Structures
1.
Amino acid sequence: MTDLEKRGDRSPVPADWTYAPAPESTDIVSLRERYGLYVGGEWLEGTEHYTTVSPRDEEPLAEVAQAGEAEVQNAVAVARDAFGTWSALAPSERAKYLFRIARILAERSREFAVLESLNGGKPIKESRDVDVPLAAAHFFYYAGWADKLEYAFPNRQPRPLGVAGQIIPWNFPLLMLAWKVAPALAAGNTVVLKPAETTPLTALLFCDVVRQAELPPGVVNIVTGDGRTGAALVEADVDKVAFTGSTEVGKAIQRRLAGSGKRLTLELGGKAANIVFDDCALDQAVEGIVNGIYFNQGHVCCAGSRLFVQESIYEPVVEKLKRRMATLRVGDPLDKNTDVGAINSREQLERISELVEAGKAEGAEIYQPPCRLPERGYWFAPTVFTNVAQSYRIAQEEIFGPVLSVLTFRTPDEAVEKANNTPYGLSAGIWTEKGSRILWMTERLRAGVVWANTFNRFDPTSPFGGYKESGFGREGGLHGLEPYLTLS
Ligand code: NDP
């Protein structure tokens, strides 16, 4: 920080934030030129391939297999073969494997963090401090349940389902893998997982962890490819499908599986309300607003993308927010100082740009802090819209980018009504000093997760999931085991 500038009665604001570059080395990651499919504990040659790139500079990273129907069916058949032995194993033995995976993930955390940022574009400080530790924590947590299922569900007989087909998105590639794989294995199932097309590399590195942990062959299988591979996995002979991604694809999967007897959980989009009351700790709330929407470039299903500010504090909140936004460092995901990294893909950048143009055309007022975006790669400046009406597309649709819409309310009733006025129901945030108001609001908000005086907090012990078009089923905690068990 250099000199401080005093402006009227406002608190001091730094005139300039100059940070020397602090790039994380990529030496710790060694990539193959070409990856096959990880099936039955072996690498099988793919028939077709595509190139995965780094969104920070569009540089190719590796060739990855595009699995076709027959390859997916083969992976599922191998997983079914492995199910017999894996489900018959003493639960305490299964737990040992999960503990091993957790430990190895922790030991190799730097390698995973660098690769996650390289392939997905998220800031290294987030992959290092959030994604990878939480992924390891998920395995630790579910390892603990593996031999205690009868205690988890007293007077019931928990039994695994068989083979789980799991499809994950690109915003938290390793963490979503952990959310899916850990409870499935703890419950005694085997899995075939498809990572997102743009971010397959940490899932492929995870195969090496599986090998290192000496997991029996066929218990974890990874098939890469685009949406067609996902669709083939849904069609294949699996007992359960677990999907995280867009509401559109989630609905298509639900239609496809209706009447099939296959179990399904869907974790879909969101348009969370972050509600700020006039009695809150204002600076803390501004930090929460920033974390709520600019964390991971806003590629977060539970992002606080609709900010509801009580009318009496609208001006100071917006002013503080804009000043805080001016201090966000946008740039190289592998720089340890970076707050906002690269947009995950060209397609996503186009989607964000289109919705932002729609916001401007509908009459909202846009603010973007001055920041120099790198010339190569996919970038979008942190953006806030004021003067937003409830009907605008930017207030209704999931943007999945660093774009915040600010709206106002007068009374708690009005806040609830406006917050619930969305097809989604994944998460919400409340900022107030009054405990009773938090409880009152929480009872009325149609959201699977409600944070109070914080935002975007995750813990493996805590169930996560949505209402309405945000999906059904819960991941995390005891609730996260249920979708992988029959309870008789
Ligand atoms: P998708 O829903 O298409 O992607 C999620 C996963 O599903 C990916 O692995 C994808 O593969 C796979 N998939 C795609 N089509 C099918 C299909 N027909 N059957 C089975 N699996 C399929 O999301 P997008 O990546 O297209 O993102 C679009 C929008 O969705 C975003 O702008 C955002 O609004 C929302 N989204 C929400 C997420 C959330 O966590 N709630 C996560 C990701 C996106 P592939 O990557 O190869 O296409």
2.
Amino acid sequence: MTKVRALVLERQHELALRDIDLPLEVGPGMVKIAIHTVGVCGSDVHYYTHGRIGPFVVNAPMVLGHEAAGTVTQVGEGVTHLKVGDRVCMEPGIPDPNSRASRLGMYNVDPAVSFWATPPVHGVLTPEVVHPANYTFKLPDNVSFAEGAMVEPFAVGMQAASKAKIVPGDTALVLGAGPIGTMVALAALAGGCARVIVADLAQPKLDIAAQYQGVIPVNIREKNIVEEVGRLTEGWGVDIVFECSGSPHAWKTITDLPRPGGAIVIVGLPVEPTTLDIAGLSVKELRIESVFRYAHQYDRAIALIASGKVDLKPLISETFAFEDSRKAFDRAVEARPTDVKLQIRVAE
Ligand code: ZN
């Protein structure tokens, strides 16, 4: 164990920037990374404000943060694809490579996965971390640390776009213009959608999404989304609906939105029990897909960012110094509609 400084969630509502013992030995197949930038995620904030997410409860002090980029400072035995000085970003989930889910290629749903900042696993708001090289990805020179730290939430969008089985020229609808909804919209456009309608109640969120070519914002405080989809698709419906709002209301009319044979992709988790119109689903032969984090998305996410086809920079709302980490979290709790992603720069 090594004593290091970290942003520690002591218990619900209590954050401290303090020293803590963390394991930093570099074993075979592992790399040590000097953390540069960490994004503040909704899940980190939820542990801070609620002390739990579903079955995951903060029962002991836990370091927060799982959206990270940095520089390799040490490589373990057997690591061949990374070297000291490489700029990298990391997948926060480490599955058991021999589990049945991993062997099926679905390592994201491996029940044994150990995921940063999910109790009891520590996160990475700390200057150094040791991680498996196989879940550490080199950043091209033209991808910044800030963009590298955005790969994690963007990978969720990539997973949603992949599960949707987009066909070039498709029209998609994204319900919910939060950070994940916006990532999904960008991944859907990069994946071949001609248009992505984005629906939300908050105009500032829609304005941010509407900066991107191909996004059609719809404020559902002013317009009925079923009518609006009908108008934009000549009454046919969209090819794909991505549900990213987590709102039980979204499910009430969701089967009215896709075209016959279209798809609904569940990205947001409803906060309350939700009903689904099964008959409405059946008469259109709709396909339903769900998304849990991501698998095999990081390399392609990084390639899209490096190519310039996906620009995540406009989504970084503000960057805080490591010493101001608590300020960053209190700002995130405010949930300003003009904030998409707040980041913390651990190293200058
Ligand atoms: Zn995240």
